[in-house]
Amino acid sequence: MKGNNDQYTTITACSICRSRTLHKFLSLGPIPLANSFLREDQLSAPEPHYPLDVCFCSTCGLVQLAHVVDPEILFKDYAYLTSTSKPMEAHFAKLAEDIIWRFNVPPGSLVVDIGSNDGTLLHSFQKYDMKTLGIEPAANVAKLAVSRGIETRNDFFDERLARRLCAERGQAKVISATNVFAHVADLEGFTRGVTHLLAEDGIFAIEVPYLVDMLKRLEFDTIYHEHLRYFAVQPLVTLFSRLGMGIVEVQHIGVHGGSIRVYVQKSPCSLSSRKAELLKLEAEAKLGSLKTYQKFAEEVGGMKESLLSLLKSLKAQGAIIAGYGATAKGNTLLNYCNIGTDILDYISDTTPFKQGRYTPGMHIPVFPESHFHESPPDYALLLAWNYAGKILQKEVVYRQAGGRFILPLPKPQLV
Ligand code: TYD
Fold first, then answer.
1. Which terminus of the chain, N or C, has less C-beta within 10 A?
2. How far apart are CA 79 and CA 82, in angstroms?
Protein backbone atom coordinates (compact mmCIF):
# COMPACT_ATOMS: atom_id res chain seq x y z
CA MET A 1 0.00 0.00 0.00
CA LYS A 2 3.04 2.28 0.16
CA GLY A 3 2.51 5.39 -1.98
CA ASN A 4 -1.12 4.57 -2.71
CA ASN A 5 -1.65 7.74 -4.69
CA ASP A 6 -5.40 7.63 -5.23
CA GLN A 7 -5.55 8.54 -1.54
CA TYR A 8 -3.32 11.59 -1.69
CA THR A 9 -2.36 14.33 -4.10
CA THR A 10 1.06 15.80 -4.71
CA ILE A 11 1.02 19.58 -4.64
CA THR A 12 2.48 21.47 -7.57
CA ALA A 13 2.03 25.02 -6.27
CA CYS A 14 2.20 26.83 -2.93
CA SER A 15 -1.16 26.87 -1.14
CA ILE A 16 -0.86 30.58 -0.33
CA CYS A 17 0.87 32.32 -3.22
CA ARG A 18 0.40 29.65 -5.95
CA SER A 19 4.06 29.90 -6.87
CA ARG A 20 5.79 26.75 -8.11
CA THR A 21 9.02 27.59 -6.33
CA LEU A 22 8.73 24.68 -3.89
CA HIS A 23 11.90 23.12 -2.47
CA LYS A 24 11.74 19.79 -0.66
CA PHE A 25 14.05 19.77 2.37
CA LEU A 26 12.93 16.91 4.61
CA SER A 27 11.49 13.45 4.15
CA LEU A 28 10.12 11.60 7.20
CA GLY A 29 8.15 8.92 5.45
CA PRO A 30 6.47 7.00 4.01
CA ILE A 31 4.70 6.37 7.31
CA PRO A 32 1.11 5.61 8.42
CA LEU A 33 -1.24 8.35 9.61
CA ALA A 34 -0.29 9.57 13.08
CA ASN A 35 -3.69 9.05 14.70
CA SER A 36 -4.56 5.71 13.09
CA PHE A 37 -4.24 3.58 16.22
CA LEU A 38 -4.96 -0.07 15.44
CA ARG A 39 -7.10 -2.69 17.10
CA GLU A 40 -5.46 -6.05 17.67
CA ASP A 41 -7.42 -7.67 14.80
CA GLN A 42 -6.03 -5.04 12.39
CA LEU A 43 -2.38 -5.75 13.14
CA SER A 44 -1.84 -8.31 10.41
CA ALA A 45 -3.63 -6.35 7.65
CA PRO A 46 -1.55 -4.17 5.29
CA GLU A 47 -1.26 -0.68 6.73
CA PRO A 48 -1.45 2.30 4.36
CA HIS A 49 1.72 4.39 4.34
CA TYR A 50 1.90 7.87 2.85
CA PRO A 51 4.90 10.02 1.95
CA LEU A 52 5.73 12.70 4.52
CA ASP A 53 7.86 15.22 2.65
CA VAL A 54 8.16 18.87 3.63
CA CYS A 55 8.88 21.75 1.29
CA PHE A 56 9.54 25.47 1.44
CA CYS A 57 8.10 28.07 -0.92
CA SER A 58 10.87 30.52 -1.68
CA THR A 59 8.34 33.09 -2.94
CA CYS A 60 6.11 33.61 0.13
CA GLY A 61 8.05 31.59 2.72
CA LEU A 62 5.32 29.03 3.50
CA VAL A 63 6.51 25.65 4.78
CA GLN A 64 4.11 22.91 3.69
CA LEU A 65 3.74 19.19 3.03
CA ALA A 66 4.39 18.04 -0.51
CA HIS A 67 1.53 15.50 -0.40
CA VAL A 68 -2.03 16.02 0.82
CA VAL A 69 -3.90 12.95 2.06
CA ASP A 70 -7.63 12.88 1.27
CA PRO A 71 -9.37 14.72 4.19
CA GLU A 72 -12.10 12.05 4.25
CA ILE A 73 -9.41 9.55 5.23
CA LEU A 74 -7.78 11.89 7.74
CA PHE A 75 -10.71 13.40 9.57
CA LYS A 76 -13.87 11.31 9.24
CA ASP A 77 -13.10 9.24 12.33
CA TYR A 78 -10.79 10.96 14.75
CA ALA A 79 -8.95 9.76 17.85
CA TYR A 80 -8.13 13.11 19.44
CA LEU A 81 -10.53 14.54 22.04
CA THR A 82 -9.80 17.99 23.46
CA SER A 83 -11.58 17.28 26.74
CA THR A 84 -9.19 14.42 27.61
CA SER A 85 -6.50 17.02 28.13
CA LYS A 86 -7.02 19.09 31.28
CA PRO A 87 -4.41 21.68 30.26
CA MET A 88 -6.19 22.22 26.92
CA GLU A 89 -9.54 22.65 28.69
CA ALA A 90 -8.00 25.41 30.79
CA HIS A 91 -6.35 26.90 27.71
CA PHE A 92 -9.67 27.12 25.84
CA ALA A 93 -11.46 28.64 28.83
CA LYS A 94 -8.84 31.43 28.77
CA LEU A 95 -9.14 31.83 24.99
CA ALA A 96 -12.93 32.38 25.23
CA GLU A 97 -12.36 34.92 27.99
CA ASP A 98 -9.63 36.71 26.00
CA ILE A 99 -11.82 37.03 22.89
CA ILE A 100 -14.88 38.26 24.80
CA TRP A 101 -12.91 40.74 26.88
CA ARG A 102 -10.61 42.02 24.13
CA PHE A 103 -13.32 42.49 21.48
CA ASN A 104 -16.22 43.33 23.76
CA VAL A 105 -18.45 40.55 22.41
CA PRO A 106 -21.99 41.02 23.80
CA PRO A 107 -23.99 38.09 25.26
CA GLY A 108 -26.25 36.43 22.69
CA SER A 109 -23.66 36.78 19.89
CA LEU A 110 -23.14 33.86 17.54
CA VAL A 111 -19.80 32.08 17.98
CA VAL A 112 -18.84 29.47 15.38
CA ASP A 113 -15.95 27.13 16.11
CA ILE A 114 -14.53 25.34 13.08
CA GLY A 115 -13.01 21.97 13.91
CA SER A 116 -14.93 22.16 17.17
CA ASN A 117 -13.93 18.67 18.28
CA ASP A 118 -15.92 17.64 21.38
CA GLY A 119 -17.12 21.20 21.99
CA THR A 120 -14.65 22.13 24.74
CA LEU A 121 -14.06 25.70 23.48
CA LEU A 122 -17.75 26.34 22.75
CA HIS A 123 -18.65 25.08 26.21
CA SER A 124 -16.51 27.92 27.59
CA PHE A 125 -18.31 30.44 25.35
CA GLN A 126 -21.69 29.15 26.56
CA LYS A 127 -20.73 30.19 30.08
CA TYR A 128 -20.80 33.79 28.77
CA ASP A 129 -24.30 33.29 27.29
CA MET A 130 -23.12 33.17 23.70
CA LYS A 131 -25.05 31.31 21.00
CA THR A 132 -22.71 28.60 19.74
CA LEU A 133 -22.35 26.39 16.71
CA GLY A 134 -19.64 23.81 16.13
CA ILE A 135 -18.47 22.51 12.75
CA GLU A 136 -16.75 19.16 13.05
CA PRO A 137 -16.00 16.73 10.20
CA ALA A 138 -15.33 13.68 12.41
CA ALA A 139 -18.70 11.97 12.92
CA ASN A 140 -17.68 10.20 16.15
CA VAL A 141 -16.43 13.42 17.73
CA ALA A 142 -19.38 15.57 16.52
CA LYS A 143 -21.78 13.05 18.04
CA LEU A 144 -20.01 13.30 21.37
CA ALA A 145 -20.22 17.12 21.30
CA VAL A 146 -23.97 16.97 20.60
CA SER A 147 -24.42 14.60 23.54
CA ARG A 148 -22.67 17.23 25.70
CA GLY A 149 -25.23 19.85 24.63
CA ILE A 150 -23.11 21.63 21.99
CA GLU A 151 -24.95 22.09 18.69
CA THR A 152 -22.57 20.68 16.09
CA ARG A 153 -22.74 20.35 12.31
CA ASN A 154 -20.96 17.20 11.12
CA ASP A 155 -19.32 18.62 8.02
CA PHE A 156 -16.18 20.12 6.52
CA PHE A 157 -16.15 23.91 6.53
CA ASP A 158 -15.89 25.52 3.11
CA GLU A 159 -17.41 28.39 1.15
CA ARG A 160 -20.55 26.42 0.33
CA LEU A 161 -21.26 25.59 3.97
CA ALA A 162 -20.41 29.15 5.03
CA ARG A 163 -23.07 30.58 2.67
CA ARG A 164 -25.63 28.08 3.90
CA LEU A 165 -24.92 28.80 7.56
CA CYS A 166 -25.05 32.51 6.92
CA ALA A 167 -28.52 32.20 5.35
CA GLU A 168 -29.74 30.00 8.21
CA ARG A 169 -28.14 31.67 11.20
CA GLY A 170 -26.92 35.10 10.15
CA GLN A 171 -23.32 36.25 10.46
CA ALA A 172 -21.11 35.30 13.38
CA LYS A 173 -19.42 37.78 15.72
CA VAL A 174 -16.67 35.30 16.42
CA ILE A 175 -15.26 32.49 14.30
CA SER A 176 -12.52 30.38 15.83
CA ALA A 177 -10.30 27.74 14.29
CA THR A 178 -7.75 26.40 16.73
CA ASN A 179 -5.32 23.87 15.33
CA VAL A 180 -7.39 23.68 12.18
CA PHE A 181 -5.86 26.26 9.87
CA ALA A 182 -2.83 24.09 9.25
CA HIS A 183 -5.10 21.15 8.39
CA VAL A 184 -7.23 22.64 5.61
CA ALA A 185 -6.46 21.55 2.05
CA ASP A 186 -8.09 24.55 0.30
CA LEU A 187 -6.84 27.36 2.50
CA GLU A 188 -8.05 30.20 0.31
CA GLY A 189 -11.56 28.72 -0.14
CA PHE A 190 -11.76 28.13 3.62
CA THR A 191 -10.75 31.71 4.37
CA ARG A 192 -13.19 33.10 1.80
CA GLY A 193 -15.87 31.05 3.60
CA VAL A 194 -14.85 32.81 6.83
CA THR A 195 -15.28 36.23 5.18
CA HIS A 196 -18.88 35.30 4.19
CA LEU A 197 -19.87 34.06 7.61
CA LEU A 198 -18.08 36.68 9.72
CA ALA A 199 -19.91 39.90 10.67
CA GLU A 200 -18.33 43.16 9.46
CA ASP A 201 -17.17 43.92 13.02
CA GLY A 202 -16.50 40.24 13.79
CA ILE A 203 -13.25 38.59 14.74
CA PHE A 204 -11.62 35.46 13.35
CA ALA A 205 -9.35 33.75 15.88
CA ILE A 206 -6.86 31.12 14.86
CA GLU A 207 -4.17 29.21 16.70
CA VAL A 208 -1.43 27.37 14.89
CA PRO A 209 1.92 25.91 15.97
CA TYR A 210 4.67 28.47 15.36
CA LEU A 211 7.37 27.64 12.85
CA VAL A 212 10.03 29.60 14.75
CA ASP A 213 9.53 27.36 17.81
CA MET A 214 9.48 24.22 15.70
CA LEU A 215 12.82 25.10 14.16
CA LYS A 216 14.42 26.35 17.37
CA ARG A 217 13.43 23.36 19.48
CA LEU A 218 13.73 20.83 16.65
CA GLU A 219 10.08 19.83 17.07
CA PHE A 220 10.13 17.84 13.84
CA ASP A 221 7.68 15.29 15.26
CA THR A 222 4.86 17.85 15.02
CA ILE A 223 5.13 17.17 11.30
CA TYR A 224 2.51 14.63 10.27
CA HIS A 225 -0.04 14.23 7.50
CA GLU A 226 -2.79 16.19 9.25
CA HIS A 227 -0.56 19.26 9.47
CA LEU A 228 -0.32 20.48 5.92
CA ARG A 229 1.46 23.74 6.81
CA TYR A 230 3.88 25.14 9.41
CA PHE A 231 3.06 28.79 9.86
CA ALA A 232 4.95 31.93 10.63
CA VAL A 233 3.31 35.36 10.72
CA GLN A 234 4.70 36.53 7.37
CA PRO A 235 2.87 34.03 5.10
CA LEU A 236 -0.35 34.67 7.07
CA VAL A 237 -0.01 38.39 6.39
CA THR A 238 0.27 37.53 2.67
CA LEU A 239 -2.79 35.26 2.78
CA PHE A 240 -5.10 37.60 4.68
CA SER A 241 -4.11 40.73 2.81
CA ARG A 242 -4.86 38.99 -0.51
CA LEU A 243 -8.42 38.52 0.77
CA GLY A 244 -8.72 42.09 2.04
CA MET A 245 -8.45 41.03 5.70
CA GLY A 246 -6.12 42.32 8.37
CA ILE A 247 -4.29 40.81 11.35
CA VAL A 248 -5.34 42.85 14.40
CA GLU A 249 -3.09 41.13 16.92
CA VAL A 250 -0.74 38.17 17.28
CA GLN A 251 0.17 36.46 20.55
CA HIS A 252 3.01 34.02 21.00
CA ILE A 253 1.66 31.28 23.29
CA GLY A 254 3.02 28.11 24.86
CA VAL A 255 0.62 25.38 23.70
CA HIS A 256 1.70 22.52 21.43
CA GLY A 257 5.38 23.32 21.80
CA GLY A 258 4.90 27.02 20.93
CA SER A 259 2.05 28.46 18.89
CA ILE A 260 0.68 31.76 17.67
CA ARG A 261 -2.80 33.04 18.31
CA VAL A 262 -3.82 35.36 15.49
CA TYR A 263 -6.83 37.68 15.57
CA VAL A 264 -8.03 38.70 12.13
CA GLN A 265 -10.66 41.20 11.03
CA LYS A 266 -12.46 41.61 7.72
CA SER A 267 -10.68 44.83 6.77
CA PRO A 268 -6.98 45.72 6.51
CA CYS A 269 -5.33 47.16 9.62
CA SER A 270 -2.04 48.72 10.65
CA LEU A 271 0.95 46.90 12.09
CA SER A 272 0.70 46.30 15.87
CA SER A 273 3.89 46.34 17.90
CA ARG A 274 3.59 42.63 18.73
CA LYS A 275 3.09 41.72 15.10
CA ALA A 276 6.15 43.79 14.20
CA GLU A 277 8.17 42.03 16.94
CA LEU A 278 7.30 38.60 15.58
CA LEU A 279 8.07 39.61 12.02
CA LYS A 280 11.48 40.80 13.26
CA LEU A 281 12.00 37.49 15.06
CA GLU A 282 11.18 35.66 11.82
CA ALA A 283 13.65 37.75 9.86
CA GLU A 284 16.35 37.05 12.50
CA ALA A 285 15.57 33.32 12.31
CA LYS A 286 16.14 33.60 8.53
CA LEU A 287 12.79 32.02 7.71
CA GLY A 288 13.08 33.29 4.16
CA SER A 289 16.14 31.18 3.37
CA LEU A 290 16.12 27.59 2.15
CA LYS A 291 19.42 27.03 4.02
CA THR A 292 17.57 27.40 7.36
CA TYR A 293 15.42 24.39 6.50
CA GLN A 294 18.27 22.32 5.12
CA LYS A 295 20.12 22.84 8.40
CA PHE A 296 16.97 21.82 10.31
CA ALA A 297 16.79 18.60 8.27
CA GLU A 298 20.42 17.81 9.11
CA GLU A 299 19.76 18.35 12.81
CA VAL A 300 16.74 16.05 12.66
CA GLY A 301 18.96 13.30 11.22
CA GLY A 302 21.50 13.88 14.02
CA MET A 303 18.80 13.73 16.67
CA LYS A 304 17.60 10.36 15.36
CA GLU A 305 21.10 8.93 15.69
CA SER A 306 21.62 10.22 19.22
CA LEU A 307 18.20 9.10 20.47
CA LEU A 308 18.65 5.61 19.05
CA SER A 309 22.12 5.31 20.48
CA LEU A 310 20.87 6.35 23.97
CA LEU A 311 17.89 3.95 23.89
CA LYS A 312 19.98 1.06 22.60
CA SER A 313 22.63 1.54 25.25
CA LEU A 314 19.97 1.62 27.99
CA LYS A 315 18.44 -1.57 26.59
CA ALA A 316 21.88 -3.19 26.49
CA GLN A 317 22.11 -2.50 30.23
CA GLY A 318 18.83 -4.40 30.70
CA ALA A 319 16.62 -1.37 31.27
CA ILE A 320 12.84 -1.47 30.82
CA ILE A 321 11.65 1.50 28.79
CA ALA A 322 8.07 2.63 28.15
CA GLY A 323 6.61 5.54 26.23
CA TYR A 324 4.62 8.22 28.06
CA GLY A 325 1.70 9.69 26.07
CA ALA A 326 0.55 7.97 22.86
CA THR A 327 0.65 11.24 20.95
CA ALA A 328 0.26 11.74 17.23
CA LYS A 329 3.65 13.45 17.21
CA GLY A 330 5.06 10.45 19.06
CA ASN A 331 4.09 8.34 16.08
CA THR A 332 6.12 10.53 13.73
CA LEU A 333 9.08 10.21 16.07
CA LEU A 334 8.74 6.44 16.58
CA ASN A 335 8.25 5.68 12.89
CA TYR A 336 10.98 7.99 11.67
CA CYS A 337 13.46 6.69 14.27
CA ASN A 338 12.24 3.12 13.84
CA ILE A 339 11.60 2.61 17.56
CA GLY A 340 9.47 -0.49 18.07
CA THR A 341 8.62 -3.04 20.73
CA ASP A 342 12.26 -4.13 20.84
CA ILE A 343 12.85 -0.83 22.68
CA LEU A 344 9.51 0.29 24.19
CA ASP A 345 7.49 -2.32 26.09
CA TYR A 346 4.35 -0.21 25.91
CA ILE A 347 3.10 3.38 25.92
CA SER A 348 0.86 4.68 28.68
CA ASP A 349 -1.94 7.09 27.80
CA THR A 350 -4.98 8.57 29.54
CA THR A 351 -7.25 8.50 26.45
CA PRO A 352 -9.72 5.57 26.70
CA PHE A 353 -9.98 5.31 22.88
CA LYS A 354 -6.25 4.67 22.51
CA GLN A 355 -5.99 2.18 25.36
CA GLY A 356 -5.93 -1.45 24.21
CA ARG A 357 -4.88 -0.32 20.73
CA TYR A 358 -1.50 -0.31 18.99
CA THR A 359 0.46 2.60 17.58
CA PRO A 360 0.39 3.01 13.79
CA GLY A 361 3.45 1.59 12.07
CA MET A 362 5.48 0.47 15.07
CA HIS A 363 2.60 -1.46 16.70
CA ILE A 364 3.49 -0.63 20.29
CA PRO A 365 0.62 -1.48 22.70
CA VAL A 366 -1.07 1.43 24.48
CA PHE A 367 -1.98 0.85 28.12
CA PRO A 368 -3.84 2.98 30.65
CA GLU A 369 -1.81 5.10 33.02
CA SER A 370 -2.62 2.70 35.88
CA HIS A 371 -0.32 0.17 34.19
CA PHE A 372 2.54 2.67 34.28
CA HIS A 373 2.03 3.15 38.02
CA GLU A 374 1.59 -0.55 38.78
CA SER A 375 4.69 -1.69 36.90
CA PRO A 376 6.83 1.40 36.39
CA PRO A 377 9.59 1.17 33.78
CA ASP A 378 13.16 2.25 34.50
CA TYR A 379 12.85 4.95 31.83
CA ALA A 380 9.88 6.73 30.29
CA LEU A 381 10.33 8.23 26.84
CA LEU A 382 8.23 11.40 27.02
CA LEU A 383 6.28 11.47 23.76
CA ALA A 384 3.83 14.05 25.19
CA TRP A 385 6.72 16.51 25.67
CA ASN A 386 4.33 19.44 25.19
CA TYR A 387 3.10 18.67 28.73
CA ALA A 388 6.59 18.05 30.14
CA GLY A 389 6.21 20.46 33.07
CA LYS A 390 2.85 19.07 34.16
CA ILE A 391 3.84 15.43 33.67
CA LEU A 392 7.15 15.72 35.54
CA GLN A 393 5.22 17.25 38.43
CA LYS A 394 2.46 14.66 38.28
CA GLU A 395 4.92 11.74 38.24
CA VAL A 396 6.93 12.89 41.23
CA VAL A 397 6.45 9.53 43.00
CA TYR A 398 7.80 7.64 39.98
CA ARG A 399 10.79 9.95 39.83
CA GLN A 400 11.47 9.78 43.56
CA ALA A 401 11.48 6.01 43.28
CA GLY A 402 14.30 6.25 40.72
CA GLY A 403 12.29 6.34 37.48
CA ARG A 404 13.69 8.68 34.86
CA PHE A 405 12.15 10.51 31.95
CA ILE A 406 13.84 10.77 28.57
CA LEU A 407 13.02 14.08 26.91
CA PRO A 408 13.69 13.44 23.23
CA LEU A 409 13.96 16.98 21.81
CA PRO A 410 15.88 19.03 20.83
CA LYS A 411 18.58 16.68 22.15
CA PRO A 412 17.80 13.50 24.09
CA GLN A 413 18.07 14.35 27.76
CA LEU A 414 17.54 12.32 30.96
CA VAL A 415 15.64 13.93 33.84
P1 TYD B 1 -1.55 15.94 22.37
O2 TYD B 1 -0.98 16.95 23.25
O3 TYD B 1 -2.85 16.22 21.71
O4 TYD B 1 -0.49 15.61 21.27
P5 TYD B 1 -0.71 15.15 19.74
O6 TYD B 1 -1.44 16.26 19.06
O7 TYD B 1 0.70 14.99 19.27
O8 TYD B 1 -1.49 13.87 19.76
O9 TYD B 1 -1.75 14.56 23.12
C10 TYD B 1 -1.42 14.33 24.42
C11 TYD B 1 -1.59 12.84 24.65
O12 TYD B 1 -0.90 12.52 25.84
C13 TYD B 1 -3.03 12.40 24.78
O14 TYD B 1 -3.22 11.17 24.12
C15 TYD B 1 -3.21 12.23 26.28
C16 TYD B 1 -1.81 11.88 26.73
N17 TYD B 1 -1.48 12.31 28.09
C18 TYD B 1 -1.23 11.34 29.06
O19 TYD B 1 -1.30 10.14 28.76
N20 TYD B 1 -0.92 11.74 30.32
C21 TYD B 1 -0.84 13.05 30.67
O22 TYD B 1 -0.56 13.37 31.85
C23 TYD B 1 -1.08 14.05 29.67
C24 TYD B 1 -0.99 15.52 30.01
C25 TYD B 1 -1.39 13.62 28.38
1. C
2. 10
The rounded distance, in Å, linking the Cα atoms of 16 and 238 is 8
The domain that contains 339 carries what CATH number?
3.40.50.720
Nearest atom of ligand 1 to the alpha carbon of 386: 2
Q: What is the CA radius of gyration of the chain?
A: 21
Residue 254's CB: how many other CB atoms inside 10 A?
12
Q: pLDDT for 91-137, tens place per residue?
A: 999 999 999 999 999 999 999 999 999 999 999 999 999 999 999 99
Together in a domain, 351 and 248: no
**Contact assessment for residue 23 and residue 60, using Cβ atoms and an 8 Å cutoff:** no
Cα angle: 341, vertex 84, 347; to 5 degrees: 10
pTM summary value:
0.92
Please check whether residue 16 lies inside any domain of the structure.
Answer: no
Q: Which residues line ligand 1 (CB under 6 A)?
A: 80, 84-85, 325-329, 349-351, 354, 369, 384, 386-387, 390-391, 394
Spans of the chain below 50 pLDDT: 1-4
Look at residues 265, 250, 263 and name the one whose alpha carbon lies nearest to residue 210. Answer: 250
Contact between residue 73 and residue 33 where contact means Cβ atoms under 8 Å apart? yes
Nearest CA to ligand 1 atom 12: 325
Q: How far apart are CA 332 and CA 314, in angstroms?
A: 22
Q: Assess if residue 365 is contained within a domain.
A: yes
pLDDT of residue 180: 93
pLDDT at 271: 73
